[in-house]
Every structure is written in C-alpha cells, then in structure tokens.
Design goal:
Layout: E1 3-4, H1 5-12, E2 15-17, E3 23-24, E4 26-27, E5 37-40, E6 57-60, E7 71-73, H2 77-88, E8 97-98, E9 103-104, E10 109-110, E11 115-116, E12 121-122, E13 127-128, E14 133-134, E15 139-140, E16 145-146, E17 151-152, E18 157-158, E19 163-164, E20 169-170, E21 175-178, E22 183-186, E23 189-192, E24 198-201, E25 206-207, E26 212-214, E27 220-223, E28 228-229, E29 234-235, E30 240-241, E31 246-247, E32 252-253, E33 258-259, E34 264-265, E35 270-271, E36 276-277, E37 282-283, E38 288-289, E39 298-300, E40 305-306, H3 307-316, H4 320-342
Parallel strand pairs: 4-5, 5-6, 6-7, 8-11, 9-12, 10-13, 11-14, 12-15, 13-16, 14-17, 15-18, 16-19, 17-20, 18-21, 19-24, 20-25, 21-26, 24-27, 25-28, 26-29, 27-30, 28-31, 29-32, 30-33, 31-34, 32-35, 33-36, 34-37, 35-38, 37-39
Antiparallel strand pairs: 1-3, 2-7, 22-23, 39-40
Length: 343
C-alpha cells in the first residue's frame, strides 16, 4: 500500500515539515527503517537517532525540529503511529459464513456476515451480532449475547448468559463467566455458594489471552466501555471495572471490588476484596492494595502508599542492615551508661 505523507498527516492529525508528497509504503522501527518507511520517536531524547535513520518520514513531537528530514509533527506521536500502523497492518484472512463443522443450538439469532469457524460450539438461544468472527475451538454457552464486530480468537470460553458488547476483542484461551470463587464454611468443610450471576462486557473492551473474568454470585461482574485487559489477569466475582482502565498482565482483583475510570494497574498488582479505587489512579507493578484509594493518586508498594513516599522509603532499604547494627551498638552503649549511673 502506498500513501503520501500528506495523506497520513490528514489521517493521524498533525503538521508536515518537508515534502508532503513523499510516498510511504510501510512502517518500521527507527533503527530498521529504510527508504519508503515511516517511523516515529516519542521524545527528544531519541532526537540524535533522526540524523542516522534511513526512514523517508518520521513522526515527532513539536519540540523536535531537524533540517533535511520529512517530519509529521504531532503532540502524541505514539497515537499517530498507531493510527498509521492500522492502515499498513495486514488483515487476517477471514472465511465468511458459518462452517458446517460447528454446532449451533436451538433458537439462535445470527446477524449478517457472521463468521463461525469449524469446531465452534454455540448454545441454545444465543445471539450473535453482525460481522462477528468466532474462531475454532470457542465455546459460547446458552443465552449468551455477542454484539456487532466482535472478534473471538481460538479456544476462548464464554459461559452461559454472559453479555458481550460491540467491537470487543477476546484473545485465545480467555474464560468469561467461570464460577466466582465463593465458599461458606461448614465446620472444617467448604460449602460451595452457587454463582448465579453473569459477566457483562461493554463496547470496545479488549481481553487478553488466558485472562479469567468470573461470573457474579448474583447480579453481574461488569467490565465497562473501553477498558483493556492484558494476558493472565484475574477479575473476580462481582467486580466492577470502570471505563478506559488498563489492567496489566498477572494483576489480580479479588471479589466485590470497584475500580473507577482511567485506572491503571501495573503488572502483578494484587487488589484485596471489597476495595474501592477511585478515578485516574495508577498502581505500580507488584503493589498490594489493601485499602481504598481516592481519586487521582499514584501508589506503590505493599501495602500501597503514595509513590513519592515509597521512593523515599526504598532508598532506606539497602541501609537497613547497617542501621540495625548502629542501633544495636547505641543500645549497648546506653545500657553501659545506665549501669555506670546506677553504680
């Protein structure tokens, strides 16, 4: 595919410095780009690399100006690059239609231009929206509702009664609607609490490979619009995840938690049960959230504390053995002084 720099600037938003008629045939990393490629740099610390790149055009932030290069100048180079990349990215081959080797139960409602690959199971009374693609090995339980333009990759599982919005992407091995982990004590035994709720996934959500989202004990576990969930994430029963959140790989959220909008949980973050996290909160990787967090906070550590305080505390950690030794020596000297005073 060929596009001029001017056409790409119109798509991505931004101004041109250089020749807007430059023809671009692909995208590439800064170091690997050759003639005909467009690439990007996100900040001025990579500006020196501009002088040596062979790319025909570079997406840059406004503070970068360099002679002799074709530049697409924008305040968000990464976003512009993502939009441009979507043009050049190869689209997967899709077999249109419903393969006879799949199974579809009774009373289905199947939209227009739906693709169902071999070895897909779709239960009774399921609804599948227009242009949805369901790849091999997928299980969709009775009464599930999938919206339009949904992509379900191989071996995903969507259990009974769950609701999936429009333009949702579900990656391989994800499990939506497995039983919540709920048990009542009966002496030394554990009595299973029936999990009779559902999972609701709103529009434009992406769910990573091998992520699990448990159904509610009753009511719903709810992932709101625009949230992006990485691979190997656990979302427990009755959680509510707000709009436009980011949950990074191996993070785990215990039951009945509520996250506001634009929350970011770093990798391996753990959130205890019944925790409320406000809007625009960032939690650093491997942190442990044990109490509620108000809006607009950046938190780190276990248990979590404000990030700046954690940075100060972390500077102390390497000196703890030396400090312990000094304290013990001081305690010994104080004891000797007290003994002398008594005598």
């Amino acid at each position: 595919m060929e596009k001029t720099l001017r056409e790409l600037a119109e798509l991505a938003g931004g101004e041109i410095a250089g020749n807007g008629d430059t023809v671009l045939r692909g995208v590439a990393p800064l170091e690997a780009a050759t003639e005909g490629d467009i690439t990007f740099i996100a900040s001025s610390k990579h500006a020196e690399s501009l002088r040596t790149t062979s790319a025909s055009a570079v997406i840059v932030p406004p503070e970068i100006q360099i002679e002799g290069k074709n530049l697409l100048i924008t305040r968000n180079p990464q976003l512009a690059f993502a939009k441009i990349l979507s043009i050049y990215a190869s689209k997967p081959d899709i077999r249109e239609g419903i393969d006879k080797r799949g199974f579809i139960g009774r009373n289905p409602k199947i939209g227009k231009n739906v693709t169902v690959y071999p070895f897909v199971y779709i239960g009774d009374n399921a609804e599948i929206g227009d242009r949805t693609v369901i790849r091999p090995g997928t299980y969709i339980g009775n009464g599930c509702r999938l919206g339009e333009d949904v992509t379900v990759y191989p071996n995903a599982t969507i259990m009974e009664g769950c609701i999936i919005g429009n333009r949702v992407i579900i990656h391989p091995g994800a499990v939506i609607g497995s039983d919540g982990f709920g048990f009542a004590r009966d002496g030394k035994k554990h009595y299973k609490i029936p999990q009779i709720g559902i999972v609701q996934i709103d529009d434009d959500v992406e769910i990573g490979a091998n992520t699990t989202i448990d159904r509610a004990s009753f009511g719903k576990t709810w992932i709101k619009r625009g949230t992006k969930i990485d691979n190997l994430v656990q979302v427990a029963h009755n959680d509510v995840i707000g709009e436009d959140c980011i949950l990074v790989a191996q993070s785990g959220i215990a039951g009945s938690c509520k996250l506001g909008s634009n929350v970011i949980l770093g990798g391996q973050v753990g959130v205890g049960d019944h925790i409320n996290i406000g809007d625009n909160v960032m939690v650093a990787g491997q942190a442990g959230v044990t109490s509620d967090i108000p809006d607009n906070q950046v938190m780190s550590g276990y248990p979590t504390i404000p990030h700046r305080e954690w940075l100060k505390a972390s500077l102390t950690f390497p000196h703890l053995p030396e400090m312990r030794k000094s304290i013990n020596e001081l305690k010994k000297k104080v004891a000797e002084l007290e003994a002398k005073l008594k005598s």
